[in-house]
Amino acid sequence: MFKIGEFSKLTNLTVRALHHYEELEILLPKEIDTVTNYRYYSADQLAVVNKIKFLQQIGLPLKIIKTIIQSNDMKLLESHYELRETEIHDELEELKKKQNIVKIFKEKMKEGNFMEKYNVELKVMPKRSVMAIRKIVPSFDDEHGLWTDLYEEFMKQNGKMENPPLGVTIYHDKEYKDSDIDIEVQSSIVGNYKDTDDVKFYETSEFTLASVTFNGSYEQMPEVTQAIASWIEANDYVISGPMVNIAHVSPAQDPNPDNWITEAGYMVCTD
Q: Where in the numbering of this chain does the HTH merR-type domain appear (predicted)?
């Protein structure tokens, strides 16, 4: 039998760690002197310590390690090995994505861009009840007219907006066009309403969006889309749908471009 200090040296574990294992009931002393309260361990407990250390090395938490050691169930152990293998695979994939991002940033540094001006976020846009108009318009400037028509129909039907109403513009064309543009504008609404020739009421589908929220005029859009493209490439996503703009503070709300807040993004999915 070995005193706790001696056993600590044999196992390369601190006395504090051995006390912690005792509290968690992972490794209990073989004997405790009722008079001195000294803890004693046996040589055969070295094998248990080695198991604990190995399972910690592969990243299993002490709570799981306790269950494995106490059960001595090989099937349970195998299932945790398989689960941990899957988790490590996912962690490696995430590290590869981060490695790609670092690589891109290093390349940008060579070009004189030391930090990304725009932060790209990945979010899931849930299903929404919306009122929408979709038309082919002569130019991007004509989007304003779609919003005007949407608002007029909203007032006619005495509508109720969600809070916030989330004004969303979707550019449906499969390629860039500067004329005859397929644009849809949407606002989130509450309640049931009647479709008209132009305005439709429906529930949208859920989708994943890679987006940048920026402040100021739309002249920044080329830089914004470049940041999103770099992020998509670095994180192994692909564009799966149209470009989406969300006006958090729109020109209709404030004519000063300095106060505009826009979220621009693309529908994406994993490759």
A: 1-71
